[in-house]
Write a structure and sequence with these properties.
mainly alpha
């Protein structure tokens, strides 16, 4: 059912997930000096190709698909809509900008500054967004307290979480839909909460 209704999400997730894995774990290995200089330059070469992918692959059909999806999704503008008009994607840099802006709105909308659009029951959405942000922030901040094995798995779950959230953000245009889509990453977030509790417990054990 999910595949039939949200095929775009499935496609995006399986594209974004390996990209996140590659970039993050390559940076970690370079930072830990596990990679030779050859691999470092190879990584830079891959990044250069990635950001100039339009020169090697015709992605116009993909960009057109995003544009058409926006046109359909923004056919009805509601109070909770945080995107008011179609942002036409014509190249890879447009796509990156679109991804960043969409993820930002998807993660934090509604903003407290949007008082003219927020109703009292929207406080639930603001509270949920705040709790999710706090959990992720604490996990990232306290990740160093985990041993290497637990740290590895925590990073894997973090990558999975961000891959799910970023994938949904591409096609979500209002915070009413966003709060439902956030449920898809709730299982991963629960595991991250367990890691956070374990970090706090281990840290407290040192004082007793």
């Amino acid at each position: 059912l999910i595949f039939l209704m949200h095929k775009n999400f499935i496609i995006l997730f399986y594209i974004i997930l390996p990209i996140f894995y590659f970039i993050i774990f390559t940076f970690v290995n370079i930072f830990n000096k596990r990679f030779q200089i050859f691999y470092f330059y190879f990584f830079l070469f891959i990044i250069l190709i990635f950001f100039n992918i339009d020169l090697f692959i015709n992605l116009s059909p993909l960009y057109e698909r995003f544009n058409n999806f926006q046109t359909g999704g923004l056919g009805i503008i509601s109070r909770a809509t945080y995107v008011q008009e179609v942002f036409y994607i014509n190249n890879f840099y447009d796509l990156m900008y679109y991804a960043i802006v969409q993820f930002y709105h998807y993660t934090f909308s509604p903003f407290i500054l949007n008082l003219n659009k927020i109703k009292i029951y929207d406080s639930i959405v603001i509270f949920e967004n705040s709790i999710r942000f706090l959990i992720i922030f604490l996990i990232l901040f306290k990740l160093r307290y985990l041993n290497n094995k637990d740290k590895y798995f925590a990073v894997v779950f973090l990558i999975s979480f961000f891959s799910i959230e970023l994938s949904w953000s591409f096609g979500t245009f209002n915070w009413g839909t966003a709060i439902r889509h956030h449920l898809t990453s709730l299982g991963v977030l629960t595991i991250l909460v367990a890691y956070l509790i374990d970090i706090i417990r281990k840290k407290n054990d040192k004082y007793y």
